[in-house]
Amino acid sequence: MLLLNLLFLIQEPAPAAAHPEPAKSPAVQALQAACAKLAEASSYTVQQTVKEDGPPAEGETNPSGSVSAVFTAHVQKGKPTHFVQDKFEAWRDGNVLIYRNADGTWVRDGQTGETAPGTDPKADPAAVANMRTRMNLARTQVAHEMLAGLDKKIEKATSTKEGEKTVISGTFTPEGAASLGQRFSKGGQERGGDATGTPPKAGEAAGTFRCVVAADGTLESMTYDVTAKGGAKDATVERKRHVELRVSAVGTTVMEVPPEIKAKASEKPGEKPADPKKNS
């Protein structure tokens, strides 16, 4: 009996070994470390440039479908994010956007009861531009959010030295390019898909990137270009997205949040605006 048990143990196949993840290249590891350092920083400032080309989504007033925006974001842990785009200024606390109105007062987005101008040819161009800016800043990702998990979206990467800086460039996986080809990642309609938010198809997306990392491992800049195809009603359309990030003042960006912002952020939809003096 003992012999039979021993034979059974000998013949029992060993459990299959778990397949480890493929080793990341030194270039990807360096970029991953730079992105992690930015995410862990107490604060930073970033200038973000976004350019998109493609047919307009349903309801958009821009007949070309092209979108171009340059804004600066000031990020500090524990505080709302501060945005400046041209003459437009806003703060974002979670999903709440509070912007400075033309008369200098702070307004919580959506509190005025206005509706989107849509395709109305009589709509005031300035009002359309203002609303488009608010929609973008309310839902767009800032640098550390955009770069989260970037290493998993890279297909291959190489690095070279330019003085004391390291330049890392490469290509995205189809899935990575598809996710980066979306206009918004905080909710709302996804650019590169149809008007219902259908994301670009991974098999029909491709992209390249270039990052510059300082000698101390801090990410200085990133540029990427993505081309993605997605559904648009009964057709398949191609959209191109170009993004530039210029990071500065890492760990030294300091913001003073106006008391009005704290008051507006605490209000509930439909509630009478709070008195900022009581929240200062």
Secondary-structure blueprint of this entry?
Blueprint: H1 2-11, H2 26-40, E1 43-53, E2 67-76, E3 81-85, E4 88-93, E5 96-100, E6 106-108, H3 125-139, H4 143-146, E7 154-162, E8 165-172, H5 174-180, E9 205-213, E10 219-232, E11 235-248, H6 259-266
Antiparallel strand pairs: 1-2, 1-11, 2-3, 3-4, 4-5, 5-6, 7-8, 8-9, 9-10, 10-11
Highlighted features:
280 residues; alpha+beta; outer membrane lipoprotein receptor (LolB), chain A; 11-stranded antiparallel sheet; 6 helices
Please describe what this structure looks like.
Helix content is 21%, strand content 34%. The chain is of the alpha+beta class. The chain has one domain (24-278): outer membrane lipoprotein receptor (LolB), chain A (Clam), CATH 2.50.20. Strands 6-5-4-3-2-1-11-10-9-8-7 form an eleven-stranded antiparallel beta sheet, with helices on both faces.
Short description:
With 280 residues, this protein is α+β, with helices and mostly antiparallel strands. The protein has 6 helices and 11 strands. It has an 11-stranded antiparallel sheet, sandwiched between helices.
